[in-house]
Amino acid sequence: MAVRALLSAEHISHVYRTPGGDVPALDDVTLRLSGESFVCLVGPSGCGKSTLLRILAGLLRPTEGRVLLDGQPLTRAQRRVGIVFQKANLMPWRTVAGNLALPLELAGTPPAERAERTRAMLELTGLEGFAGAYPGALSGGMAQRVAIGRALIHDPQVLLLDEPFGALDALTREQMSEELLRIWARHRKTVLMVTHSIPEAVLLADRVLVMGPRPGHLVAEVPIPLARPRSLALLHQPDFVALSEQVRRSIRPA
Amino acid sequence: MDNAHLAPPVPHERTAESSAALPRARRRRWHLLLAPAFGLCLLAVWTLVARSGMYAAFIVPTPASVAERWWGLASDGSLLRHAAVTLREVLTGLLIGVAVAFWLGYWIAKSRTVAYTLTPYLVALQTVPIVAIAPLLIIWFGSGIASKVIICGLIVFFPMLVNTVIGMRGIPAELHDLLRSLEATPLQTFWHLELPAALPIVLGGLKVSVTLSVVGAVVGEFVSASAGLGYLINFGRGTYDTPLVIAAVFTLTALALALYGLAAGLERLLLGWQRANGTP
After folding, report:
1. B228 φ, ψ to 5°?
2. Which of A62, A91, A89, A86 shows the shortest CA–CA distance to A74?
3. B127: Cβ–Cβ under 8 A, 6 or more apart, which residues?
4. Interface of A with B (CB under 8 A)
5. For a 10 Å CB count at each end of chain A, is N or C smaller?
6. In the predicted model, is pLDDT for residue A1 greater than 50?
7. A157 class by beta-carbon count within 10 Å (0-12 exposed, 13-18 middle, 19+ buried)
């Protein structure tokens, strides 16, 4: 594939300096994300997945290595890279519509356009009836949908998701995966999603990157050649199960 | 921070069988009479003690003589004049104290350098009893409004500062990350994140501060003043005009209550979203 990488990490290493000594978190990670691809990053807890994501978002400066966005070194967080965290992190003083519109307000989008795009995003995320609701009245899954909508509304080129469904119950989690597939089909972004659910990764991704334990390093890359559009029905098909097994084996080699 | 723990416990919903017999309205309203009834009892006890002859009238005046004195002061406009003086001191001191404390608290929460530099002095300042340095402030700033404003400002400063720092530091780090990733300017971060996130705790501090500010003004007026409700109390004490002292105390209480009510109203107005989120 000769597709130019939109976001790439080159030889990223990171060490947390703590009073108790240096803690290596990442060791020489190199990855390339190209346009319109969905990549999942899996690995054991504490292997530095979130650290890598924060570095890719420009929120954390790596000890070594560099991040390139569209060929330019990324030295600070940028609007072009949207981010969703495990917790929805909605502002409780804003309504659902207000939370969705925040990125547009900060970017100085004219009110008319803001209203129009907020309405479209409410529709896309299935939250039409909740425009005026406050976050406290939402379920975990709904709150996370708002968070995803907020990360997409200003049309970033890259979307980074840090275990976005990690705090949800299993049923909601499955529904949200399917929801995300549907949203992604309409908004084809370059997506990198951290997860520790292997079925979730296989269901969503074009490629699954597997990280080894601390200090985090990439140990395997599993391409997922399953046809799109995909749905939860895939979960029990033999090729899906085989791919999941392949990912599982590369995390914990026998 | 709040006096919610003083609020009466909510009675358990009765089962349908036991409550069906009682008319709903009567069941709800009778308890509203308890507090006024108790107040009337206290007033009756006060009257009895004053009338019993155990104490001279200038030690325990009757409620009627206090009310008469109060009415006299109110109708010739002097009560309003003195109350206005105190109110001006209270509000000016409150405004300055709250503004400075918020500004300093904001920077202490944001910058470690500022925190390390100022914290020891601010704690030391807090341990100085304001009442003790009131005479000093009168010497330096005269017996006019300036010294009282400074006393009010100092007395509200610390609770406001502490609340601002706690409020600012309590903002989730991920919301800061979100605003950074959206390239928010420092002003946008303040306006869209820091101010609204810290507001509940800051307004809680304001509710405490309004009543403290009234205390500050009275302390200042006790030391040296030519007008104000504190001056009126001091004057009444000097002339054995006990009804005047009590009338002034009641007026001060009403003033403090009104200010507290305003602060609580402001809170309800600005923090409507808290109720909408289901948090009390």
Report:
1. 115, 160
2. A62
3. none
4. 54, 57-59, 76-79, 81-83, 85, 87, 89, 91-94, 102-103, 105-107, 134-137, 154
5. C
6. no
7. middle
Residue closest to A175 by CA, chosen among A237, A242, A125, A120? A125
> Taking the CB of residue A11, how many other CB atoms lie within 10 A of it?
12
3-state helix, strand, coil in chain B (%, to 5): 80, 0, 20
pLDDT digit string (tens) for B102-124? 999 999 999 999 999 998 998 88
User: Could you tell me where the DSSP H helices lie in chain A?
Assistant: 49-56, 96-107, 111-124, 140-152, 170-186, 198-204, 238-251
Instruction: Please judge whether A83 and B273 are an interchain contact, meaning their C-beta atoms are less than 8 angstroms apart.
Output: no
* Mean pLDDT rounded to a whole number for chain B: 88
Q: Which residue of B has its CA nearest to A104?
A: B182
Name residue, tokens 């390239």: B183
C-alpha distances out from residue B179 to A103, B176, B199, Å? 8, 5, 18
Residue ranges of E strands in B25-183: none
**Would you state the pLDDT for residue A196?**
86
Nearest to A250 by CA among A205, A204, A217: A217
Inter-chain CB pairs, A–B, below 8 Å? 69
Q: What is the pLDDT of residue B15?
A: 44
SS3 A210: strand
Cβ neighbours for A246, distance < 8 A, ≥ 6 positions apart = A222
Percent of chain A with pLDDT over 70: 98
Q: Do β-strands A5-18 and A64-69 pair in parallel, antiparallel, or remain unpaired?
A: antiparallel
Which range scores top for mean pLDDT: A42-46, B92-96, B224-228?
B92-96
8 Å CB contact between A67 and A12: yes
Which chain A residues touch B277 with a CB distance below 8 Å?
A: 92, 134-137
CA distance B279 to chain A (A): 8
Taking CB atoms and an 8 Å cutoff, what residues of chain A touch B273? 92-94, 134
Average pLDDT estimate for B8-30: 55
Which residues of chain B lie closer than 8 angstroms to A58, CB-CB?
181
User: Do the chains contact at A106 and B273, CB–CB below 8 Å?
Assistant: no
Identify the weakest region by mean pLDDT among A185-194, A200-209, B187-196, B246-255: A185-194
Q: How far apart are CA A210 and CA A216, in angstroms?
A: 10
pLDDT at residue A102 tops 50: yes
Task: Give the pLDDT band (50/70/90) at residue B128.
Answer: confident
Reported as a single tens digit per residue, the pLDDT across A170-183 is 888 888 898 899 88
With contacts defined as CB-CB under 8 Å, which chain A residues touch B200? none
Is domain A5-90+156-251 in CATH 3.40.50.300, yes or no? yes
- For an interface test with B, the pick among A93, A139, A150, A161 (most B C-beta atoms closer than 10 Å) comes out as A93
